[in-house]
């Protein structure tokens, strides 16, 4: 296996009022990437996502909102970039990713991961634009989206370089890991031995073994890192688990 572990604390769980200091703290503690969640405005209450997700999703799409939360955008990435040279792994939970490519590139984003659910028609153009804007393209999929939907994006002429398998419904930190998503990770790893496969949602000491064994190498972790008395130990445990499961050759 030639993929290397990338441990990416989710800055959604950090103290936004001290973002630069939080970013430095994570990098000093061994983080490889900083995971930045870019989300659109809410239409409704978060619990609707899990209880009535189909209805909720269609409401979101028709209302041009992707998740029931509001976080940060390019201005915050631009400010943070002045304080760190770290890889900013940006996950865009938005319905119109194309509208944000230029501004995210200029702001200093390193990776731009969009959702396959909203890019079925224009992903080739989107991936080209992301590359031209100097960022690394990735594609994400929500728990209800079949893994087969991303295959064309990995195999196309302008392929994405990472697949992000959501292991919770996107929108909030602190949710419970969905072990059934590991079937998607396994299928991807079997098909694409060198692809970066990221998992996001509910990752921590009690769930990393399952994710690493399935073949994930990029690990996003929010509450398990920021909520730990010693976040550095969690980062290092996550890395060791990935290394053990997938020795780098
Ligand atoms: O994208 C998201 C949530 O939509 C994630 O990045 C969360 O921020 C992960 O947080 P934890 O589940 O690790 O607390």
Automatic annotation (TrEMBL):
Binding site for a divalent metal cation: 35, 37, 91, 200
Catalytic activity as recorded in UniProt: D-ribulose 5-phosphate = D-xylulose 5-phosphate
Annotated catalytic residues: 37, 200
TM region positions: none
GO BP annotations listed: carbohydrate metabolic process; pentose-phosphate shunt
InterPro entries: Aldolase_TIM (IPR013785), Ribul_P_3_epim (IPR026019), Ribul_P_3_epim-like (IPR000056), RibuloseP-bd_barrel (IPR011060)
Alphabetical list of Gene3D superfamilies matching this protein: Aldolase class I
A Gene Ontology molecular function term of the record: D-ribulose-phosphate 3-epimerase activity
UniProt-listed PROSITE patterns: RIBUL_P_3_EPIMER_2
Organism superkingdom: Eukaryota
Entry EC no(s): 5.1.3.1
Residues annotated as binding substrate: 10, 91, 171-174, 202, 222-223
Cofactor: Zn(2+); a divalent metal cation; Mn(2+); Co(2+)
CDD domains hit by this protein: RPE
UniProt entry keywords in alphabetical sequence: Carbohydrate metabolism, Cobalt, Isomerase, Manganese, Metal-binding, Zinc
Cofactor notes: Binds 1 divalent metal cation per subunit.
Protein family (similarity comment): Belongs to the ribulose-phosphate 3-epimerase family.
HAMAP family (UniProt xref): RPE (MF_02227)
Protein name as it appears in the record: Ribulose-phosphate 3-epimerase
Source species: Brassica carinata (Ethiopian mustard)
